[in-house]
Amino acid sequence: MKRTPYFILLVLFSGLSITQSAAQKFKPLFNGKNLNGWYSFLKNKGKDNDSNQVFTVNDGLLKITGQDFGYIVTEKSFTDFHLVVEFKWGEKKYPPRENAVRDNGICYYVVATDKVWPRSVECQIQEGDCGDFWLIDSVTAMIDGVQQGPTKNTRVKKKTDNEKPTGEWNRVEVIAIKGKCTHIVNGVVVNEATDVSLRAGRILIQSEGAETYYRKIEIKEL
């Protein structure tokens, strides 16, 4: 029987180990069963007082009604990371946005002060605007060679639109490393910023007047 040299086996097993390790680095922030690791905050009700069940989990999906403005936010803080979410729009909309486009959002590097909305960087989730930057509460960044902020809230539009039609699932990714933040929608880079003034904080999912579903929220710390 022909023997495979030991060093080849070592390389093969090392490569397999590295591949498995890389695949295991993504960890769920949303477990599909409950909101362990998160807490809720609603503008008119405060922390963990979700009497209208704005945030519920059923059949592996996080449902956000949008009825009350607020959010769920991670208890843990993150620095350098790759975040992946998959979302789709529902049907219902609520005042004061019942006649506006559907709106949601992923905020990251969120400071530890609960209000609507806390200081953070936002990857906009909104019909037609997925991937826009919102620099909330005096955050600054360099985008396309232009210094953005500080203002109360600074919006920088995405470079291209790659959102799927309403009702279909979308994959949104945020890669944040040492002040460089990249927004990816369905595999296409739609916005990038450097020299972002926040470098660590929690991750937040908004409720902002529109029914929204999430089936995946996972993170890889870099």
TrEMBL record:
Source domain of life is Bacteria
Record has Signal as a keyword: yes
Keyword vocabulary terms for this entry: Signal
In alphabetical order, the GO MF annotations are: hydrolase activity
Q: What is this protein called?
A: DUF1080 domain-containing protein
InterPro entries noted in UniProt: AL/BT2_dom
**N-terminal signal peptide:** 1-22
List the Pfam families hit by this protein, alphabetically: 3keto-disac_hyd
Question: What sequence ranges are listed for the domain 3-keto-alpha-glucoside-1,2-lyase/3-keto-2-hydroxy-glucal hydratase?
Answer: 26-220
Organism annotation: Lacibacter luteus
Q: Signal as a keyword?
A: yes
